[in-house]
Amino acid sequence: MKATSLLKALSLAALTCVAVLKAEAAERLPVEALTSPNGTAYWFMPVEKAKRTAVMVAWPSDLSIVPAGKEGAALLATQLMMHGGAGGLGPDEVAAAFNDLDAGARIIALPHELRAFLVAPGDTALEAAGQLNTALRDPAFDATWLQRIRGNILKTRQQKGMTAGHRMWAAARTAIMGNNRYRRALLFDPQSVLTSVTRQDIVKWHGAAFTRENAIVVAAGGAGSELTGQTIDRLLEKLPARTAAPAVPAAYPRIKIPGTTIVLHDPASPKSSVVMVGRVPPGTEEGGYKRLIATTVLGNSPESRLFTQLRTELGLTYRVRVGVTDFGRAQRVMTIGGEFEAAKLDQ
Q1: What number of other Cβ atoms are within 10 A of residue 319's Cβ?
Q2: Three-class DSSP category at 30
Q3: Which residue has the higher pLDDT, 263 or 9?
Q4: Which of 44, 177, 209, 337 is disulfide-compatible with 275, CB 3.0–4.6 A?
């Protein structure tokens, strides 16, 4: 299996480390709290038969480091970091370097968090970590590539905006969040949150986003703790020690569940998309792993209960999925959504 195929699987294992460490079940799982040679604390889950190891670094982030009205800055920046060249190498050269190492990497931006993923075999892990470090530390932020990537994102968003599913989620997010910065960061609506972003905005954001002091690191895979620790140090090498981000984060929107049914009618659509959103108890340290299992059993895989009932047995849905989103510790919502043949929606 290629590294790109393993990236999601091993990264999920790494993400699971975070959840299980703060749950009662952690006592029964082989999760180790370790420190790298350079003093970075990390959590490690050994996977004996895995030929590769995945490392995930998460940086708590916030829209307070993004200019108002330019909530697309983080998305554009992280896309440029991976696909716009870094360390004197062009985009194709960066991609070729990872391919030559049989490694995969991603940098993604969420409204409240930044994540960098790396997956690589043991014999190329250190070099692959160096490549990702270069993308994190010394991206080119080329103006021509900024325009190209921005154009591709806008084109993709426009195409998605035509689908019933996208319009459904946009309506749901607007209903519970209102028109605020977090909604704009999730939907990139209006388009000006992308089109108004300049290279200077991106450079300034980048200087406040990635540091060593607030990095949360987890790893899973076949490499031993010694090599994993060295890989983590190489990945974080020469990043700024301290963040330049504002000390007071921007406030999360107050989530409202209006108890309202919203219908968006498109008679030309062959599919009907449905989502239900409701409030569930707020997040707790102990509940993370149990929630992960519960949502997976209910609707996060082809073997889940909803998928089995609605698609396998009745043939009513194209797909169905359950998700839980935390908007800060005090606000949590659960979503159940799916796509159905319009003629079978009543069933």
Answers
A1: 15
A2: coil
A3: 263
A4: 337
